[in-house]
Give the backbone structure.
Amino acid sequence: MEKDITLSFTDRRQVLAPGALEEKLRACAPILAAAVAGEERYADVLGWRTVDETAGPERVAFLLEQAARVRADADAFVVIGIGGSNQAARAAVKALRPEGGPAILWAGNTISACEMERTLRELNGYQSIYIDCIAKNFETLEPGIAFRVLRQYLEKRYGEAEAARRIFATGTPGSTLHQLCLDHGYTFLTFPEKVGGRYSVVSDVGLFPMAVAGIDITALTQGMRDMRDQLFAAPAEENLALRYACLRNLLLEKGYRLEMLSFFEPRLDYFAKWWIQLFAESEGKEGKGLYPVVASNSEDLHSIGQFIQQGSPILFETFLHVQARDASVVLAHEEKRDYFDYLEGKDFWDINQVACRATVAAHSEGGIPCLELTIPALDEHTLGQLFYLYLFTCYLSAGVLGVNPFDQPGVEAYKGYMFKNLGKPGVS
Ligand code: PA5
């Protein structure tokens, strides 16, 4: 079994000319060199790049201490946040959450009254509740109003002083959220000024909720550092992130418009949501970019599988494989005739692997360019590596595409209408 994350490419229809990747890698070597050095033009948004600037061992130790206080007392912990402010924590919690510890609830990621009601009803069933409101500049509507509702809920249940002990907020120093914490005694954690939402897994934003859920953030951040070292040291032709960035851009240049992340582990469903947000907000601008879509298999083979195999040839696929066997359910003997005897004695794990190999074969033979990203295991260290690999790949890929990976001017368009119609002061 491979110890490292690997990337391979199957191109049965020879969409890319022989040598095209090598040529692209050579042409893009300066993009890699600039990213490794840290570009001056992005100096105010590259806080995540070294890992140590925002998630060094001391910060991790501090977060573990804070999380231990919550874990010792809480039976429910609500993470309030949207977009980059909650996606990474949710990805890790859904993929790795160990047994025990407080229930983790998610709020502030929707304006649905029904969901808010449901969360409040669910909270009535817990004795000891803590919350963390995560918002970079605290103007985002969803976490803002969810925080107000949940703060008031805690105050009603525990009284103001006790509620304050149970409230964490993660924002930028000097923000209105910071002021609220100073005024009312909430514990303030840092949303680094130099880190945008979708890159914030490398900070308190992603790491604190993970630690409360019992995820080993020491191993996770070590995984990030190990991947950083690997990517910073590898020359262009061997660089995993640059290879991935170049392949996806070459396929875009050939007319493919979607990258589909496909996997056979539903534990990765929320990692996939994180990935979608990272790439859609970072690259989808100036009329450019690949649209990121997901197939969570084998379930989605029974819905979008038909389109993938025979529909418009607009997508290429990146399969995310997990190598290490970490679960086992064997199909036992059965007297009743259900016609599944041919699978008797076989493990779900192996059947899933066979389904996965069959899908790669069918899709690549059907003409879909297939990339395969194989991770040795689904554990904290590897997930840390994978987070960092994708952050850095996204940075490089946007460089190859020629767009700024750290802004998102397009998301303001709908907000103008919404805030005007809601009567926000200063919006006309
Ligand atoms: O990646 C981003 O920058 C965005 O998705 C933000 O994370 C999201 O809009 C939430 O922003 P904020 O943390 O300011 O509430």
About this structure: The mean pLDDT is 97.
